[in-house]
Specification:
Number of domains: 2
Shape: globular
CATH superfamily of the largest domain: Translation initiation factor eif-2b, domain 2
Bound molecules: 5-S-methyl-1-O-phosphono-5-thio-D-ribulose
Order of helices and strands: EEEHHHHHEHEHEHEEEHEEHEEE
CATH class of the largest domain: Alpha Beta
Number of strands: 14
Strand content: 15-25%
CATH topology of the largest domain: Rossmann fold
Structural class: alpha/beta
Distance between the termini: 36 Å
Number of helices: 10
Largest sheet: 7 strands, mixed
CATH architecture of the largest domain: 3-Layer(aba) Sandwich
Length: 354
Amino acid sequence: MALEPSPPFTTVRPTRDGRGVVILDQTRLPQAETEVTLRTRAEMEEAIRLLRVRGAPLLGVMGAWALAALATERAAHGMTDGALQIAALRDDAEALRATRPTAVNLGWALSRMIEHAAAALSTSPPFDAASLAEQLRAEAAEIHDEDREMCRSIGRHALSLFPTEPPSLTVLTHCNAGALATGGIGTALSPLYLAHAEGRSLKVFADETRPLLQGARLTAWELARAGVDVTVIADNMAGALMASTRVDAVVVGADRIAANGDTANKIGTYPLAVLARRHGVPFYVLAPTSTLDPDTPDGAGIPIEQRSEGEIREGMGRRTVPHDAATWNPAFDVTPADLVTAWVTDQGVIRSWP
Ligand code: MRU
């Protein structure tokens, strides 16, 4: 059996004292590999808003560690009232949830942590803040471990979809759904890491992903670091690429998959799906089950995060839009389910929705 790759770096981890969260600051990549320690809720909210830590599954892992850290901090400061601790945790969860509304994994993990805290409180009177904080740290570690395992399962399932002939594989991906976006080896990039570890000849095209360049800065960084052959293209080159080159598959992640399969992912995913259909290229969405949102019937109900106009006006580090022109900056778009060839989760391959 081929050796399976491990996450090549740590994206999020608790501080040694459990009272903070250490993140790899993704806004500094690819220039610098810098860790930042977050100790207050305001610092955690800011790190998520600014995309220092990002990617739907990783936002879930981050949310879990954030609540565990905040509970640990309050316990260290002598919190003695269980009702106050749970109220404070609910308040933390609401504030963190509001930072990025589209990625359902964040809310999913925060809710799971709150439910865990409420259950622990109801079963273990008298209230012991240190013990509750310890239980929350254990739950965050569990969420982190599950995410790691889900990445591997997604990769194994997705690998079975790729053609084995010819032996060389060419794929196109958008944004960053790799190790930087998860607690493991990624979602969309997971089968690519597995294929690479198996020694398959692999060529990856990475969309630059305007306006914040997650494809160029992050996907290219982590794939090149792993020795994978990666070529960055500007987003508007995908059509020309598919028209001129054999592309075996488009693989993307997801921030939320509605009950009918409509899929929200980084802005620019939807046009890629249209192009893939035009060129007969399979279009695969790879995501953990925590990205499925059965409570949202279809894509129209998915909240789309609107980001600041500065990301468009000065996205390349200098003003590129005149003062008197308006901008529009939705962070995600929705790909209708009928344009997706298959969704791959840790549970297996889904080809259509009920
Ligand atoms: O705004 P970002 O960088 O958090 O957006 C990330 C994406 O759109 C990813 O494709 C998605 O979260 C899946 S990551 C496994």
